[in-house]
Each structure stands twice: as structure tokens, then as C-alpha cells.
UniProtKB/TrEMBL annotation:
PROSITE patterns: PROKAR_LIPOPROTEIN. It comes from Terribacillus saccharophilus. Keywords: Plasmid, Signal. This is DUF5050 domain-containing protein. Residues 1-20 form the signal peptide. The keyword Signal applies.
Amino acid sequence: MNKLLMSSFLIVMIVLSACGKNDSSDDTDAAAKPADTPEEVIPQASTLEEPVTETTSKEEDAALQQDAAPQTLTLQEKVDQVGNSTLFSSNAQDYKGFEIIEKDGYTYFIYDSKDHDLAVSVEKDNKWVAEDVPINITDSSLPKDSLGDRELISSGDSLLYNLEVVGESDYHVVYKLTFDPTGSVTAELVKQTEDGEDADLVQGSDGKAYIFNHIQDSSDYSYERVLMNDKGEELYSLKNMEDGVVDLLDVHNGVIYQEDTVYDIKVDDFIWDEHGQEMSFDLNFDVAPSNVYKSNIADLYKLDTYLCAGCTDGMAARADLSYSTNGTYETTEISKYTLPTEAAVYDATMVVGEDSINVYSIVEFKGNPTLQKYTIGRIDQPISLE
């Protein structure tokens, strides 16, 4: 009986021992091979997202750095002598106040002349194709001895020419001049004021010239100022505007910068500050009319000429082209390009193209007056006005 019990006990122990080995083997395998459970996959997935986030961050940083990169006005090309020769006119006054029109590959150089009203020379492919052609607007219509002040401003691919007639009557006539490659001119009378009325030309921020007709009310001696485009078409009638020099018509914002005030032409009133005073500003528009250009609401190009100290003929010392961003009533200069100062500048003007700005200057080159050209790349960013 005892032998039988002992045998049964040994069999049970052997079976239990075998089961223990199998369980131990399973535990060892489980430790060597981690279970592929969802809980353990989540950290791995999270780890894979980090490079994606890092890449996106680097791209954003690069974009921000590109946006923050300094904008600099850079010279692209210089022409020492436009037309490949010095200026040739013996009738030119002094080339002060000259205007430039660029059209269809031709450059029209317009200036005051001693023997006639104006003169024009035409350049193409750096050769003069027409030289010192007289523009006699007044010979057939107005006696020269009756003429007072005159002014001219380029307006796109044409020119506005304002003449004051004095004598028994006192009025203004404004012509729109267009040119062809031979130097011939077509003069269209776009405005003649009534006796006693004044007219001024105003530079628009869009590169066009505008007309201000000053109409006096004889009953109370008040003035109405009628703003017209370069076709003589009325745009606005302004009855609350004070007399003074208009620096710029900001076409994009619908305001006029006049001396140190801002006038809203849409509502015919000044812009007032929180204290009920006329809003003052410092946009430094004390430059020739054709030398201010606003490419859109916020950007401003300006060409300044600085008088030569000690010079008696009004010669400028230098010319600077600047680019600024235009805030509400102030500007922040972003970049400035100064024309080389090896030769003193008589005068300068600019023509704005799609991608660049051509600055033309009159200097003395090899002992003779010469028209030079500097091509400078634009750096403004287009802004939708819609």
C-alpha cells in the first residue's frame, strides 16, 4: 500500500515539474518578445510626428527670414551718355525742369528753349533719332509777350503744359502734348480758364498729372477748386479746401497732401485729429512734381535733388532715390540710392516702369552737358486695392 502511494506521489511531481518548465518558457518568450499591443504603438507614432513638425517649423522660419530680408535699391544699369553723345542744343535754357517720356522703346527728352516754347529730342537704341526739335505751341494762338508763368508735368506717355496769359485778360490754358519719333507734337487744348481764374498742375500718385481749376465766387470771394484729369474732365468739386501748394494727389487713398495738412477729396473736408485740429503730417514731399510715385496704398518712391552749396546757377549737388512705406500720416524710409557724386547734378527726374525705375540726370561729362540714365530695380510688393 505504501509503495502504491509513493508511486502516485512521484507521478504527480513529475507532471507538475513539466508544467513549471512550460510556464517558465512562456514567460521567457514573453520577456524576449514584447507584445504588439496598441498601447505600445502610440508612443512610436508620436515619435514619427516630431520630424514632420520640425520640417514645417524650418520652412516657416525660412519664409519669415525671407520676408524679413532687407529691401535694397540696387543699380542694375548705368548709361553715361544717353544717345551716345553730349547734349547739343544751343537754345536750351539750362535743362532745368526737363521732363522724360518713355513710349514704345523711344525716350523723349523735353526741355525749355530760348527761341521757342519747348524743344524735344528723341532717343532709341542709345542714338538720337531727332535732335532739338522746336515745340511752338504759342506762335499760332498766343502772343509770346503776353505769357506769364508756365509749368509742365509728364502724364504717363504724354505731357501737360500749363501757360498763364496776362494782359487785358488773365487766364490759363492747359495743353496735352503727345509726341511721335520724329519729334512732331500734337497739342490738344484740354482746359482754358475764365478771366481771372487760376489753374495749377498737380502730380498724381499714379504717375499721371491732374489739373486744379480755381474758381472765385465774386459775391464772397470764396474759392471752389475743381479737380480734373489730364483730359480736362471734372472729377471732384472741393469747396472747403484752403489755398496753398498741393504736394501730391494720392489717388489710391483719395487724399491730397497740401503743405502740412491732409485733405479727403471724397468727403470734401480736412482730416481731423482727436482734438479737432487739422491732421498734420511729415511726408517730406518737397520735391519736383514728377519725382513722387506711389505704387499702391502703402509704398512710396521719391527722388530728391539737393542744391549745391555756393553754386550760383541752381545746380544740385546730388540726387537720391528713396523707397518708403507710407503709414497713415508718416513714412518710414526702407532704402535709399544716391547717384554717384563724381559729377554735380544739374537736375534729375524719374520714370517708373513695371520692374524698375529709370532716373535721368543732367551732368557735365567731358566738359559738356550730358543726359545720364540709372536703372534701379523696384522693391515694392504689389498690394490689391480691392
